[in-house]
Specification:
The chain is 35% helix and 20% strand.
Length: 494
């Protein structure tokens, strides 16, 4: 069971935000009351009268709660705003909007670390997004549900220093805060296991730091949060790159061994893992897709998923399908049905001409995150593997506005007419501060999978563009026409 929000917010006890709401006749004498208080260990948000003229939950909480420092004020303005707007345009209940944003205020702001440096550059270069923003919102949907989510890299004030070279400390504070803010304990059994597998002990961190390639990242852990009704699903993403450098073993070898050790008669994992392991091991040394990270749900192990993420330099659709099916090892009806839909979606969102060959790569781009990402999801006691592909629109599409229009066309083709009619407008309103017509990276990736019960499953990942320094501008304001042409580059496994 995913934890539900119910934090007894100490600083909100007996505090009404009524006084922060406008009462001027200029907004038609709006009578409005929002109270946040604690009672029986649960936060109650009550509404007496709602009008179209009331301020947003984001604005009400900004005015009512305030911030202990300028760092948290910055992160609220820059990162909570697009999240709040996504909750609004996807029509989350007003009560849930307040609950989720209260949780964000209490538990997430402090975990985003110091605001940018005076130069506009990040305090810590997170691998959470291409411009190092430590927070990434996303929107996942299928024909039965629509869910807003976000991921973060918790960043401590000593991140990058001798005290915490790889930013491993803040995540524990963040999880402790979240545990206190939710009903139903977070299940930490698999967290503890994977932390032991992939976090570096203090005595090896200095050696590993000296060996990291200059163009490689140092992120070790990210967290993700799905807002599902009144529940929150929390996931942990472990990056094996540092352990790989420390041991000289590939990320795949480290993750496969870790999963094998989790396998028991009551939690069987090896049958589902077998086709993934067999496919990756079929490549000559140094040419396999690169394992980027592995994710788990912070729930009881029997209910958790293990999601294994790979990146490959391939961008030809035929090669993408080859990896999506693990070289033909995945051939269930749902996988085959998904391939047929992917053949329509891929050229549509990448603005490819109708006669673009499926075996032709996209124009090459030199960047750490070019190529195509994949995710292979397994569950205890389930032999099936659920594949997902992440279409790299950030690097290869024409513009964010074109991507949104292409998605609207795709949604219409799926029979999602209401979404098709609103997506371009809603996307443009949420990210109206970005130059959507001329740049990319507001859409970073389009995740695609196909479920047995509900069919097409989509996720739009968004780059919030939180920084303004030269490096961030280079990432975020890349014009797709006339931009710098770069040679292909790819890192083999370390």
């Amino acid at each position: 069971m995913a934890p539900s929000y119910s934090e007894p917010l100490a600083f909100m006890e007996a505090q009404s935000v009524k006084s922060y709401l406008p009462s001027s006749p200029s907004i038609h004498q709006t009578q409005y009351l929002v109270e946040a208080k604690t009672k029986d260990q649960s936060t109650i948000i009550s509404r007496e009268l709602v009008s179209s003229f009331i301020p947003s939950p984001w604005q009400v909480l900004r005015d009512a709660l305030g911030f202990p420092n300028e760092d948290q004020r910055y992160w609220w303005d820059k990162s909570a705003k697009p999240l709040a707007d996504l909750l609004q345009v996807t029509k989350y209940d007003i009560y849930l909007q307040y609950q989720y944003l209260l949780l964000y205020h209490r538990c997430i702001l402090a975990a985003l670390g110091p605001k940018p440096l005076a130069s506009g550059e990040p305090f810590w270069k997170s691998f959470c997004t291409d411009d190092h923003s430590p927070m990434e919102p996303s929107w996942t949907l299928d024909k039965s549900e629509s869910i807003i989510r976000f991921s973060i890299e918790p960043i401590g004030r000593t991140a990058g220093s001798e005290a915490d070279p790889f930013n491993q400390l803040m995540v524990k504070e963040c999880l402790s805060s979240i545990g206190k803010a939710t009903t139903g304990q977070l299940d930490m059994e698999w967290w503890n296991y994977f932390e032991n597998e992939f976090f570096l002990p203090n005595e090896t961190q200095g050696i590993v730091k000296s060996r990291i390639p200059s163009d490689e990242h140092s992120t070790n852990i990210c967290l993700a949060f799905d807002f599902i009704g009144s529940d929150i699903t929390i996931k942990a993403y472990f990056f094996p790159i540092l352990k790989s450098i420390a041991t000289g073993r590939t990320g795949s070898d480290l993750v496969f061994d870790a999963i094998h050790r989790l396998h028991t008669p009551k939690l069987q994992l090896e049958e589902a893992l077998a086709p993934i392991e067999d496919y990756v091991n079929s490549f000559p040394t140094g040419t396999a897709p690169k394992l980027e990270f592995v994710a788990i749900d912070l729930v009881a192990p029997k209910d958790s998923r293990i999601k294994i993420y790979y990146r490959s330099p391939v961008t030809a659709l035929s090669q993408v399908i080859e990896i999506y099916t693990l070289g033909g090892r995945l051939s269930s009806p749902s996988v085959l049905a998904g391939i047929e839909v992917l053949k329509d979606l891929w050229p549509l969102v990448l603005n490819l001409p109708a006669d673009y060959p499926e075996d032709k790569d996209l124009p090459f781009v030199k960047h750490r995150t070019t190529g195509t990402c994949f995710n292979f999801e397994i569950r205890p006691n389930d032999p099936d593997v659920q594949p997902k592909v992440y279409i790299p629109v950030r690097h290869y599409a024409k513009s964010d506005l074109d991507i949104s229009r292409s998605l609207a066309v795709f949604f219409e083709g799926q029979g999602w007419s209401e979404l098709a009619g609103s997506y371009v407008k809603d996307f443009s309103s949420v990210f109206n501060h970005n130059d959507l017509a001329n740049t990319t990276h507001t859409h970073s990736h389009i995740g695609f999978g196909y479920k047995k019960k509900t069919g097409v499953a989509m996720t739009m990942y968004y780059g919030p563009k939180l920084f303004s320094g030269p490096a961030a501008r280079k990432e975020n304001d890349r014009h797709v026409d006339g931009g710098e042409k770069k040679e292909w580059f790819w890192d083999s496994e370390l």
